[in-house]
Amino acid sequence: MQILTDRQEKILGLIVHEYVENPKTSGVSSQILVDKHRLDWSTATIRNDMARLSHMGFLHQPHTSAGRIPTEVGYRYFVRYLVKTYALPQSECRKISHQFHQARTSVNEWGKLAANVLARHTRVAGLVTALHSHKAQVKHIELISTYGQQILLVLVLRGGEVLQEICSVDCPISQKTLSDLAERLTKYYKNRNASYIEDQCGLIEDNLETTILQQIAIIMQKADSFAAGELYLDGIQNVLSQREFTNSEPARNALQLLEKRTYMENFLESALNSQFDGVAVVIAGEGDWKELKECSMVLARYGTPNVATGTLGVFGPTRMAYDRAIGAVRHVANLMTRLVHDSYG
Question: How far apart are CA 190 and CA 228, in angstroms?
Answer without folding.
Answer: 23
